[in-house]
Design a protein that fits this description.
The complex is a heterodimer. By secondary structure, chain A is of the alpha+beta class. Chain A is built from 19 helices and 10 strands. Chain A has 3 domains: 358 residues, Cytochrome Bc1 Complex, Chain C; 81 residues, no CATH class; 98 residues, no CATH class. In chain A, helix 3 runs antiparallel to helix 5 and helix 3 crosses helix 10. Chain A is globular, with a radius of gyration of 29 Å. Chain B is of the alpha+beta class. A 4-stranded antiparallel sheet of chain B has the order 2-3-4-5, with no helix packed on it. The chains are: A alpha+beta, B alpha+beta.
């Protein structure tokens, strides 16, 4: 009852019925890969929630002070306020350790979800026109997420992250001409500068999250405006979106996912130790930990630094240090390639039409090959970032592992990319529905790109049915015989005030499909034949009457405008 | 069929109800755990149960109790009709039409662009309070003033006779413990094994080098006595102290800079000047 009153109260002031009912009817495609972006979004919310708590206790300063907290090994030691407050909020603030670890885990999940989302968009060609614009927003968010992850784990001023920061500083310093100035401007002076931690804090808790919040909003506005893309299937075409409606199906599902993300975040934060800075000790420029690995999402840069050979050289007497190539050039090329991909692909394929239907990964073997090669390349780099750990585990000299990783970094992407390319061609050319059913003949066909012709049935014998409900509103449905017992039936997501408008929408969604009259679905006929009802009883009757009145009023209101 | 379906729905409703109750229990568990200062693990599990309960309940509701799929929405296309797009473009460019207005638009662009450029100048303030720029700062370290005693990380001066060949001693210039560009180490080596002269003057077999890796600036902290080699734990560069700290493996290109040292009349080690070259990673104007 409260909700009903609230709805009326708001509607009497904001005239909500029409826009909200339309928004609630928005159709989302049903596919599990569409969840990755939502996981990223909800991880971001988890990060903001836990991060707000942490920001209340963290002191962004490298001023020395004496630690008096309950962690005994550090008792009485003079350490920086940033490090001391991190240890204090872990041990002396109740639930502090849980929130800190949950925050760190959420960051790892956040970036992981972004990358999965990116991979889905890439391999299905969802970035093609008109969605290049949202691809640019998304890649920008990925860079910001990486930046914020790095500043976040660098702020506690512990030995491990301090060493990472030292490396980052050296990488910035390596940029020709500008490096020294850039490093000084960013870090506030020669490393380690007092300004660095406060700057990272401000960027981490305000600048970057604000930018991310703005970009997330933009991302979603563009998404709603352009509507979701969808995989090809019966009933789906370039002129419609098929799936479930926002209310109630998707609202329940997405809230369930939100709760699940929070559950995983807190389970990880409670049960799995992460970044125990009190074990690493405070940062000291004369010390380094071994082994030393960064968070996984910056490990590709670390691996590249380890693999790239010593290759300093001089131009006109000026030094170009070797970290410039793996540290700056590789990162710049990576993001440049990401930003430019939709436009490069359109240039190469010459395809510039707008798309609503997605590719299956096999539809575009070259894209699949490039994507697989890139994933393998960066995976090898991530592995190389732990070469000292592997060396210890396998009892082999680290130098020979470096050579192995160098060969892998060049060879594995090439081999994997080629394999993916030829398998995709075989899948595209042959009749095998999936990878496991590929035959030798399919492989031959793929190599020659000799594609099996389609069924050639032409458009299916589909039809549109339009009907009236409650004697007032009109709906339509798309019916396509499947050959099975049940036809494919897709119902219009909203109702229309007139038959003409319903038919117009149906024609827009299914151009060329014949339209005819149809019968309303069995549960929705007017209460004229109570004998055929499945749900009898006075309560159900009252309920139906109420529903009928609601629809009546809504329609009257929309007509009176 | 009908009865079967109704039972199915009843079961789903019961399951969702159970999940929501479990969520409430988890929340209570977290609150009680917090109040009594419970372990992080317990608090985490309680919160996880609370959210997992909500997730399960809503998930069951979404999957079993409301219809899913089966709807279609028409897509009105991505672009407006050509004429409409033209009309918008006309409307947007209206104020700047005509060559005089065109000049005005360009002048406005000039004005705004100038302000934007002018506002870049205060970026210089980011290099805290009017320090000299990087060209000077990166080249020099506190050792530069000369005559500074070598102290260990606790600030205690190091005597020449304390330096052994077993392990390195990490040193700082006296009064500058913790300075980022100054850490160095001393170690005693057998000069007859040198294949190249150290870059800076030593004392007998004692040599001093910068501790910072010339690749990315990590502390080159691992010393192997038998081979006289230093290892960097970050990117596995190896420096041969018997050959003037030349890099022999890994991504480092340049040798560790040497620190010229001497022994004063009391037996303490003193630096006679700055490192033989700027310590740490390379940069554009590095000599």
């Amino acid at each position: 009852m409260i909700v009903r009153r609230l709805v009326r109260l708001l509607d009497s002031r904001l005239r909500l019925s029409a826009p909200v009912r339309r928004a609630m009817a928005k159709v989302f495609p049903d596919h599990w890969t569409f969840m990755f972006g939502e996981i990223a979004l909800y991880s971001f919310v988890a990060l903001v929630l836990t991060g707000t708590f942490l920001a209340l206790f963290f002191e962004p300063s490298t001023t020395d002070r004496v630690y008096h907290g309950s962690y005994q090994p550090l008792h009485g030691k003079t350490i920086s306020a940033a490090y001391a407050s991190t240890v204090e909020l872990s041990f002396d603030v109740r639930a502090g350790l849980l929130v800190r670890q949950a925050h760190h885990w959420a960051a790892l999940v956040f970036i992981g979800a972004i990358l999965l989302h990116l991979a889905r968009i890439f391999f299905t060609g969802a970035f093609r026109k008109p969605r290049e614009i949202n691809w640019l927003v998304g890649v920008t968010m990925l860079t910001l997420a990486l930046l914020n992850g790095f500043t976040g784990y660098s702020m506690p001023d512990d030995l491990l992250s301090g060493t990472g920061l030292r490396i980052a500083y050296s990488v910035v310093e390596s940029i020709p001409l500008l490096g020294g100035w850039l490093a000084f401007l960013l870090f506030g002076g020669e490393f380690p500068a007092d300004q660095t931690v406060p700057r990272m804090f401000f960027a981490h808790v305000f600048l970057v999250p604000a930018a991310l919040a703005g970009l997330i909003t933009l991302h979603m506005l563009i998404l709603v405006r352009q509507k979701h893309s969808q995989f090809p299937a019966p009933g789906r075409n370039e002129h419609n979106v098929v799936g479930s409606r926002l209310w109630p199906s998707y609202t329940l599902r997405t809230l369930a996912l939100f709760a699940a993300v929070l559950a995983v975040t807190f389970a990880l934060g409670g049960l799995f130790q992460i970044n125990p800075v009190w074990i690493y000790g405070p940062y000291d420029p004369a010390r380094a930990t071994s082994p030393a690995q960064p968070d996984w999402y910056v490990a590709w840069e670390e691996g590249a630094l380890r693999l790239f050979p010593a290759a300093d050289f001089r131009i006109f007497g000026y030094l170009v240090p070797s970290p410039f190539f793996p540290g700056v050039v590789l990162g710049a090329l990576t993001f440049l390639a990401l930003y430019a991909w939709p436009f490069l692909e359109a240039r190469v394929t010459g395809e510039r039409t707008a798309h609503q239907l997605l590719d299956r990964p096999r539809d575009h073997p070259a894209r699949l090959g490039v994507g697989v090669a890139a994933l393998l390349f960066y995976s090898v780099l991530v592995g190389a970032a732990a070469d000292d750990v592997f060396a210890r585990l396998l009892r082999v000299p680290v130098t020979s592992l470096v050579w192995t990783f160098r060969f892998l970094a060049l060879g594995l992407p090439l081999a994997g990319g080629m394999l993916a390319y030829y398998l995709a061609r075989a899948l595209r050319a042959g009749s095998a529905p999936e990878f496991a059913e590929l035959t030798r003949a399919d492989l031959h066909r793929g190599a020659k790109d000799d594609r099996v012709p389609g069924d050639g049935d032409g458009p299916p014998a589909a039809r549109i049915e339009v009907w009236q409900e409650f004697g007032l509103v009109w709906r339509w449905r798309y019916v396509e015989p499947t050959g099975g017992a049940k036809d494919l039936e897709l119902t219009s997501n909203i109702d229309y005030p007139s038959e003409q408008e319903a038919a117009k929408a149906a024609r827009a969604a299914y151009p060329g499909v014949p339209i005819g009259p149809g019968r309303p679905p069995p549960g929705l006929e007017l209460p004229a034949a109570p004998a055929t009802r499945r749900l009898g009883g006075p309560l159900a009757r009252v309920f139906r009457l109420a529903a009928w009145l609601v629809v009546l009023r809504a329609v009257r209101r929309s007509r009176s405008r | 069929m009908n009865g079967h379906r109704r039972r199915h729905i009843r079961r789903a409703e019961l399951a969702a109800a159970g999940a929501f109750l479990l969520a409430a229990l988890g929340a209570v568990g977290f609150a009680v755990g917090y109040a009594f200062g419970a372990q992080t693990q317990l608090e985490g599990v309680a919160l996880a149960v609370a959210f997992a309960g909500i997730a399960a309940g809503l998930g069951i509701w979404a999957r079993r109790l409301v219809p899913a799929g089966g709807h279609v929405e028409e897509h009105g296309g991505f672009a407006s009709p050509e004429l409409a797009a033209e009309a918008l473009a006309d409307r947007v460019t209206e104020p700047g039409r005509g060559w005089r207005r065109g000049v005005l638009v360009r002048l406005l662009g000039l004005a705004v662009g100038s302000i934007g450029l002018a506002l870049l100048f205060p970026l210089r303030s980011l290099i805290a309070p009017r320090l000299p720029g990087p060209t000077h700062t990166l080249r020099h370290t506190p050792w530069r003033s000369g005559g500074l005693r070598l102290v260990d990380t606790t600030g205690r001066p190091v005597r020449a006779d304390e330096v052994t060949g077993n392990d390195i001693v990490v040193v700082y210039p006296e009064g500058h413990v913790g300075a980022g560009d100054a850490p160095a180490f001393v170690v005693r080596l057998d000069p007859s094994r040198f294949s190249a002269r150290p870059p800076a003057a030593g004392v007998g077999g004692i040599v001093a080098y910068s501790l910072l890796c010339t690749h990315a600036g990590c502390a080159v902290g691992l010393y192997e006595q038998g081979t006289g080699q230093m290892f960097c734990p970050c990117h596995q560069s190896v420096f041969d102290l018997l050959a003037g700290a030349r890099p022999v493996a890994g991504p480092a290109s340049r040798p560790l800079p040497g620190l010229p040292i001497t022994v004063d009349s009391s037996g303490f080690l003193r630096a006679t000047g700055d490192f033989s070259s700027p310590p740490g990673p390379g940069y554009w104007s590095r000599p």
